[in-house]
Design a protein that fits this description.
By secondary structure, the protein is mainly alpha-helical. It folds into four domains: 60 residues, no CATH class; 44 residues; 87 residues, Helicase, Ruva Protein, domain 3, CATH 1.10.8; 68 residues, Winged helix-like DNA-binding domain superfamily/Winged helix DNA-binding domain (Arc Repressor Mutant, subunit A). It is built from 13 helices and nine strands. A hairpin with a 2-residue loop joins strand 8 and strand 9. The chain is extended. The two termini are 29 Å apart. 18% of the residues are buried.
Length: 302
Amino acid sequence: EQDRSALHQAIEQQEISVAKAGINATLKSRCAVLAAANPKLGRFDEFMPIHEQINMPPALLSRFDLIFSMIDRPNRERDSNLALHILQTHKAGEIHEQRLRLKDSKYTEEEEKKLMKPVTPFFEPEFLRKYVAYAKRNVFPVLQDDALERLKDYYVSLRSSSEESIPFTPRQLEAFVRLAEASARVRLSDHVTIEDAERAINIIEKYLRRVGLDRETGRFDIDIITTGISRSQHDRMLTVLEIIKKLSGESPDGTASKEDIISEGEIQGIESGKVKDALERLKRNGQIYEPKHNHYRITEEY
């Protein structure tokens, strides 16, 4: 929990507070954050909110420019290529070790080089380190007018295409700019072109299709990341709250039974399973409570 709160401040305010040995200081932390997390249940579920699977609050998740869930789906061709690559890598290591230890090894240097080629990096790590350092120190790209217009048009058109859900916020627009600048910087270019803008749009669209798509409406909904629930789920919870309020007012004991809530929800076009899910969420959020089994009442705060 302490690490998460420190990370929140570093990402949002670009600084870190230190309080140790009587020293209180605030240090600048202008750096990129690359985080990895394993899902609670071992595999990512595309139909569950991402914050419920990695135990990270939505407020912190929304600070990341990109979020990718690694999903393992069986694919014969890809699995075959992966298995072949892993096995050949092991064989290459074994041949290298044998030639190193035994003078009379039957394997030649050419065979070893041939097997090592797929795992030998095209660029050496030292070269990449120098390349990145040079780009950060010497390249400061500027948005060109056509790239600026492309990002603006995409942002405005996507927001206006949905009247209910909010696909993007200004925070995502800043992510577009950072990615477009990074695309230009990796080319060692001082100009952010329309191609860089398109690349940024494609990357963010791919990430949102994974973790920011409302499966019910088929639209992007940033609320899934920022709050943990989509706009359609939020509206459904409000409807269920109204049903509980109405039934509680009509009931002698001031509660609404689960059976009546589900029946009323179905009349209003909500499936029974989604009504149950809304009840669980409302109870978890403290908006309703269960004074007796399968009977609900709205908390005074709501």
